[in-house]
Amino acid sequence: MKIAEWEPKIKCTKSLIFKTTVLLIIGLFVVISIFSHTNIMLTEKRLLEIASNEASKTSDAVKGSLKNAMLSNNRQVIDSIISTVSNEASIEDIKILDISGQIKYAKDSSEVGMSLDRTKIKSCNICHASAVPPRNNLTVIFEKTDGSKILRNVNPIDNEKECFSCHDQSQKVLGKLLVDFKINDLQNIVKGNRKILIASAAATLITALIIVAAVLVIYLKPKLHNLTKNIRKTAEGNYDTHIKVKGQDEIAVLSQEFNNMINAIKQRDEKIKNQLKTFTTIYDVSSILKRAESLQEDIMLILNTLEMGLNIEQCTILFIDDTGNVELKGYVGLTQEDADLVRLVIEEMFEISKMPVSREKEEIKAVIGEKDKILGDEVFIAAGDGKLIRDFIIAPLKAGGRVIGAITVHKIKDSDIHASEIKDTISIIATAMSPYIHIGLCLEKRASMQESPFDALIATIQRNIERAEQYQGGLSLIIIKAENYEDIIKKIGTIKASDNIRKALIEISAFIDKVHEIIRMTENSAAIILPIVAESEALDIVHKATGRCTNDIVWQFKSAYYPDDGTLAEEILHKATEKFL
């Protein structure tokens, strides 16, 4: 099944739309519930306050009506007033109590003469819980045994001057007027409001659910589906997919980030392809270089590779000897005059440190720094003069533990030489090509000598001894021999066996990270010269280098050390080859 044919099967309860809707509904439910409850409580409180005020006014009106009848002690009028008031629809009960709590007048005449137990009646406890009950007009709400709620107004009857004829002046309160009001209508209003608010909340939640779900399905889902579809295309390797960005919301930002990611992936993919092409080209050239017959053939192959395989339009290959002399070996895309100018620039880097000038000058220090970078095997961009020479890359060629030259790159097709990946690529090329150039250079030097191979070997050893003496150091000579050379010949023949030895020596030289020279002595042996390296360290270095070779050659080793084993090249060589070759 192709990735593009795959459709995600997401359960409804697991979908983003469902989760978003549920969370929103829960949030709305909590907010609306709190709001509705608060609204109902405030409404009920406000209605009760209004009812309490009206009850107080009614109670004061009744007390005012009873005042004259009480002053005249006209019980018939008092009973008539109480009977008239109690017949009102909103009045549940009315009583007049004396100071001791005995009922003097009541709607129900059978209650007259009874005393109220203020310790058991909840409405009485509210005021009489303290030692001195308050004297102001109070209203309390209590629940009857049948569950209905009553609003009771307790209005104290004060002992006024008109009452002193019948009551002791020291008595402040003569009794209390209790008027009970029905609040069924008020409760019905509260219940009605509660129902309306609940219905409104439910309608709001359902409407919000429908609107949110519709918006998410109509607006969000298509955009997410489009994003998912393009991600699947990308997973298939289609990096040309692109999402059209609309608006400035989070989905638009996500789409833009997706487009940025695709562009980055495309660039990375192109970079990997170019690197793969580079590695393939280097591998192919390395295979050809192993069969090259001369140093000049090596140079031409490398230049062709740089130009045709790696799109380098302008470059040079330079050799640097021990004295700092620079030799132009080849170039591409430059005139002879420009190539010579590049050689002079590199040569100046090595010559300027010998000049009797002040090292404080910034331009002199900069040039010396570039020379140090070359000797340090660092790939870097050298600054041009802005006129004759533009900025260019210098990639040192290091082999045998020393820098033997450099590749300079001045122009690359469709690329900027200042890009870090370009320097990395050139560094890989220089590292891969250096061993072959080194071997070719050694072969060229040997071929140019007007002496026998043995004399050339002695001369090479003696030259390295003299170099070691300059630094008051020693010199290690390691002779390596292919122990199973005869077996290799039987398997693949003499020509291929000899070629395998040659390839192995190239690998060994590349793996040795010290200054050295490697010279083939016979079909199955070679001499490795390591100046300023102790004998034990030299053996360890050569052991590790041969162990890293990708072949089935079994090597034997024998060593000699200057000056312990002799002071002349012949003595050192004799010690290393005695009873070995």
TrEMBL record:
Alphabetized UniProt keyword annotations: ATP-binding, Cell membrane, Kinase, Membrane, Nucleotide-binding, Phosphoprotein, Transferase, Transmembrane, Transmembrane helix, Two-component regulatory system
Transmembrane segments: 16-36, 196-220
Molecular function GO labels: ATP binding; protein histidine kinase activity
InterPro entries: GAF-like_dom_sf, HAMP_dom, HssS/ArlS-like, Mcp40H-20-like_sensor
CDD domains: HAMP
Enzyme Commission number: 2.7.13.3
Protein name: histidine kinase
Protein source organism: hot springs metagenome
